[in-house]
Amino acid sequence: MNRRTDERHPGSADGPDRVLICNPVSGSGDHAPAIRSRALERGFDVRETEAAGDAREFARDAAAEDVPLLAVAGGDGTVNEVVSGLADADTLEAVDLAVIPTGTANLFARSLGVDDVDSAFEVLDGGVRRRIDVGFVDGRPFVNTCLAGLSAEANTATPGELKRRLGVFAYVLTTLRLLPEYEGVPLRVTIEQGESAGSSTEEWRGSALLVLVGNAFRLPNVGRRDRSTVTDGLLEVTILEERPSIESFNEGMISKLLEGELTPVTRIEASALSIEGLEDEPVAFSLDGELLAAATLEIGVRERCLSMYVESSNALTL
Ligand SMILES: Nc1ncnc2c1ncn2[C@@H]1O[C@H](COP(=O)(O)OP(=O)(O)OP(=O)(O)O)[C@@H](O)[C@H]1O
């Protein structure tokens, strides 16, 4: 069922040319009236979700209507649903997508330089777009991160405030805080680097605390080149293994962690990878924060397939 507002964009007799999909309960849950009126001023047809799954369905509907401009107001979970709907309809490459960050952490929007609602509308009015990569796990898309291992617990236990301050590192921190209670997950991670001649495959096998596969997310720069991860056709894979020697962990230790001082860390760029659970239990994983489980994850990336509105100064580095 399609739930829409009555206010349609004038002149849209053949269907709207721009649609806003709004999750009214994301984040603090008080944004919907203001977002709606700012979107209506700009000629958007506003469609508000009433339950999980609606944003994905609305994106499929918009694809069927050939709507060329889609905006999504919500957090990473709502963005993921919209991208999933576009992938269902095989129209990822046919639309321009704008994110209005009204979620709790909004990690994906922030990676595009869109820090708040005001800046999202400025970005929309400015019209600068970039084609970005989209990651896939067994055909399901993710724009920001796929986390496997203890991520199930880390996801549900990571406070929103910590996510806002630390971004994706909040999950790492929460995982480490949970360590006294959890064992690592025995995994085999097969990593492909490069696509054609010169490509190589590396295998990592061990007990992983967390496997973090990033598309748009950025790790703090630890002696690495400073370029975007979201337009290079590669995924950044970070594996934290074994138990650190300390029981409690604090934020100041993040750089030490990344330098491999506290717990063995493997960081590698991949054009594709698979993560296989070595026990009977399915591997818990999350796509942009949404929890799932599977015995084996086949992970790939489709290079520059999605046109996103981005903050203009940020666009140069994307
Ligand atoms: N009307 C609704 N009622 C209840 N749940 C909804 C509704 N619309 C969407 N949802 C669900 O809300 C969930 C959370 O949304 P989302 O991830 O966008 O926000 P958030 O968790 O506040 O932000 P972030 O992921 O950036 O921290 C999604 O899984 C989505 O499916």
Structural overview:
It is a single chain. The protein folds into 2 domains: 18-127, 3-Layer(aba) Sandwich (Rossmann fold), CATH 3.40.50; 145-303, Tumour Suppressor Smad4. The protein has a 15-stranded mixed sheet that branches. By secondary structure, the chain is of the alpha+beta class. Helix content is 26%, strand content 33%. Mean pLDDT is 83; it is low at 1-12. Helix 2 crosses helix 3. The chain is globular, with a radius of gyration of 20 Å. Residues 23-27, 49-52, 54-55, 74-78, 81, 103-106, 163, 289-290 line the site of adenosine-5'-triphosphate.
Count every helix, treating DSSP H or I runs of 4 or more residues as helices: 10
Q: Any idea what the shape is?
A: globular
The largest pleated sheet is described as: 15 strands, mixed
Report the end-to-end length measured between terminal Cα atoms: 37 Å
Summarize the structure.
Helices cover 26% and strands 33% of the residues.
Question: Topology, please?
Answer:
Blueprint: E1 18-22, H1 32-41, E2 45-48, H2 54-64, E3 69-74, H3 76-88, E4 96-101, H4 107-111, H5 117-126, E5 129-137, E6 140-142, E7 145-149, H6 151-157, H7 160-166, H8 169-178, E8 185-193, E9 200-214, E10 235-241, H9 254-258, E11 265-270, E12 272-277, E13 283-287, E14 290-294, E15 296-309, H10 312-315
Helix pairs in contact: 2-3, 6-8
Keywords: ATP-binding, Kinase, Lipid biosynthesis, Lipid metabolism, Magnesium, Metal-binding, Nucleotide-binding, Phospholipid biosynthesis, Phospholipid metabolism, Transferase
Domain DAGKc: 13-141
Pfam family, one: DAGK_cat
